[in-house]
Amino acid sequence: MDTELEKIVGEYRRLGIDQQLDHDKFYLYSIITHSTAIEGSTITELENQIMFDNGIAIKGKSLVELNMNLDLKAAYERALVYARGHVDVTVERLIELSGLTMKNTGAEYHTALGDFSSAKGDIRLVNVTAGVGGKSYMAFNKVPMKLKEYCDNLNAIRRNHGDMSMQDLYDMSFDAHYNLVTIHPWADGNGRMARLMMNWLQFEYGLVPSRIFSGDKEEYIKALVSTRESGDLSIFRRFMSDTMIAHIRRDISAYLESIG
């Protein structure tokens, strides 16, 4: 029996919403806009469309916001190449994508163990906490090994994608998101990278990609924290599925209203 997510995605496709002219381009712009909005960007989908398509900087927006969106677009364009090529997920590719994501907004760090740059996608050489008074993320010296394990495990699962249902594929992408942000390999940009990795897999297997709107931020963070504290991946999977269902229903309603 199809899950609720599979049913609503089926309806979305039956209506041909994803077959409209420039759907893929504008949907990608929407993904980028909402991923940066989670990090504080105030640039809208329409403003990004103008900036991406016409190269026009949006007045009244900070250089950080402009670069955040332009850099993430470059990272997604590279990830789409990887998705279409069905290449392995590797530490080197993740570093490359992180470097693209943080190219113009990253920082240089100088530590007792050496220098590193988030603008180049370098793996962090410092420990980080999950907010004031929060638990620390994984110790930095464990990150390289855990990131290699992450890639190896994900590639092993991907080899069996032909035997997986649509819900299974979505769950794989949600788990990839959660596991990457839990490792927290970088000093900056971990949320954007985790969402990008999720979308890479969704693009690769022909799924309608997930978006997390700024209005979802509080529940999104709560789902990540609850999953981390309990070790129960079903919490984050359920949040992501429910959020997708709500967003796709909204898109279907807007589409039906637009065609009368």
Number of helices: 10
How much strand? under 5%
CATH architecture: Orthogonal Bundle
Low-confidence stretches: none
How many discrete structural domains?
1
Biggest sheet features? 2 strands, antiparallel
Instruction: From the alpha carbons, calculate the radius of gyration and give it in angstroms.
Output: 18 Å
In the CATH hierarchy, the third-tier topology is known as: Fic-like fold
* Helix proportion: 55-70%
Give the strand tally.
2
Q: Which CATH class applies here? A: Mainly Alpha
Which strand order do you get reading across the main beta sheet?
1-2
| Gap from first CA to last CA | 32 Å
Order of helices and strands: HHHHHEEHHHHH
SS-derived structural category: mainly alpha
Mean pLDDT: 95
CATH superfamily: Fido-like domain
Written account of the structure:
Helix 2 crosses helix 3 (45-54), helix 2 (23-38) packs across helix 4 (63-85) and helix 7 packs antiparallel against helix 8. This protein has one domain: Fic-like fold (Orthogonal Bundle), CATH 1.10.3290. A two-stranded antiparallel ribbon has the order 1-2. The longest helix is centred in the C-terminal third of the chain and has 26 residues, at 233-258. The chain is globular and about 65 Å long. The protein is mostly helical and 260 residues long. The chain is built from 10 helices and 2 strands; from the N terminus they run αααααββααααα. Strand 1 (108-111) and strand 2 form a beta hairpin.
